[in-house]
Specification:
With 407 residues, the chain is α+β, with helices and mostly antiparallel strands. It is built from 10 helices and 16 strands. Its EC number is 2.1.1.37.
Length: 407
């Protein structure tokens, strides 16, 4: 594939992630990165992007990586000096995935012997930042300019407040973090130019219009300039009834945004279901007034401390992998006059919606069943954030036209 005009070769172990990359036209080697030799890349590598698996470190898992962290630091120290002690250290790790965070140093040490790479970009969950600082000290001793820190994806137009530990390094330029393009609140224009735009909300990214009361049964048209609201909450029967009453008619293919319709109890492991659509300008069905009684939010998982965000805000960090990490749309009453009316059932987020909230195109060719796609989405770096991180090192200047949200 091309990333901002550069050819890349990916290394990935997961079968379905490899199939997705192939469907997207990305060159991928399916392998265990810890076993693959570095020699094929010597003399032909300009940049190194490393995003080790986060499961050992993430708050969504058991976080055994934090216990293993001293061992990983030791492995990095040894690898930077050309000593491969991984086998011995791996035997002492509580989670074998922890040591994958040391793998980039194996590649960096070998590449550095031939004066490569020119630049490095690394990403992980915030708890890995101390390890990135260790990498930074080593890279500086090799002549790199390095920056490490934690960035919020929402500050770069991602409709998700995903915080990640970042390392950027370059042999050829002074490294700085990319300037934020968005902020929690929109900023006014000043003598120095236009201010930052407001964070992108889930409703805006999903095409639900400029309203704080969209309903996630199907996708509505509209955008930042406004538009009709979606159909009321419920099963496909609501949409079917609206068609039969003549309140809504499908528009020509290609004229609207398509999202999956689903039942509230649809299983995560099911294959993607049939599609329903609604286009910008389509009238709401007669019973849509009932939907005005509820506001919708996205709950990030089933745990007690789950992040819950209203649809007119960015999502919390999306992570998947097991049933406790299911994201669901939940309804809350808009006022106290609803009385005893039952709230609509929670509705599981679709894989396509999750991908859009990571800034993948709505038609991105994900491969596998819903569970496999959710896992890929949760493990991915938001493409829009990646573009901001990599553009300076690829000689690119980003413009608003370089980004197209799925809406």
């Amino acid at each position: 594939m091309t990333v901002l005009g550069a050819r890349d070769v990916g290394m990935e172990w997961d079968e379905w992630a490899c199939k997705t990359r192939a469907a997207a036209g990305q060159l991928t080697i399916r392998t265990d990165v810890a076993l693959y030799p570095v020699s094929p890349f010597l003399g032909r590598t300009v940049g190194l992007i490393a995003s080790p698996p986060c499961q050992a470190w993430s708050m969504a898992g058991k976080r055994l990586g934090l216990i293993d962290q001293p061992l990983v630091h030791q492995a990095v120290t040894d690898l930077a000096q050309g000593r491969d002690t991984r086998e011995k250290i791996l035997a002492a790790c509580r989670d074998e995935r922890s040591l994958l965070a040391a793998e980039p140093m194996r590649y960096l040490h070998a590449l550095n012997t031939v004066g490569q790479p020119e630049w490095v970009a690394m990403e992980e969950v915030p708890h890995v930042l101390p390890l990135w600082r260790q990498y930074a000290a080593i890279l500086r001793s090799w002549g790199f300019s390095v920056w490490t820190g934690t960035l919020n994806a929402a500050d770069y137009g991602v409709p998700q407040s995903r915080r990640r530990a970042i390392l950027l390094a370059s042999r050829t330029r002074t490294v700085e973090p990319p300037p934020p393009t968005h902020a929690r609140d929109a900023e006014p224009e000043s003598l120095f130019g236009p201010g930052r735009a407001r964070w992108v909300s889930m409703a805006e990214a999903l095409g639900w219009g400029a309203t704080d009361r969209p309903v996630p049964t199907v996708c509505a048209g509209g955008g930042p300039g406004g538009g009709p609201e979606p159909f009321p909450s419920g099963s496909r029967k609501t949409l079917t009834d609206a068609r039969q009453r003549g309140a809504w008619k499908p528009q020509p293919s290609g004229s609207g945004v398509f999202l999956k319709s689903r039942h509230a109890n649809a299983g995560q492991g099911e294959q993607t279901g049939r599609e329903e659509s609604r286009t910008a300008g389509a009238p709401r069905p007669a019973d849509a007034v009932e939907a005005q009684r509820w506001s919708w939010s996205l709950r990030s998982n089933n745990q007690a401390n789950a992040t819950i965000r209203a649809v007119n805000e960015p999502a919390g960090t999306l992570f998947f992998g097991h049933r406790a990490n299911e994201c669901t749309w939940v309804a809350e009453p808009m006022s106290d006059d609803i009385g005893a009316a039952p709230a609509p059932d929670p509705i599981r987020i679709t894989a396509q919606e999750a991908g859009v909230l990571q800034t993948f195109p709505a038609d991105y060719p994900w491969q596998g069943n819903k569970g496999q796609v959710f896992s890929q989405v949760g493990n991915a770096v938001p493409p829009r954030l990646a573009a901001h991180l990599l553009a300076p090192y690829l000689g690119k200047t980003l413009t608003p036209d370089d980004f197209t949200l799925a809406a």
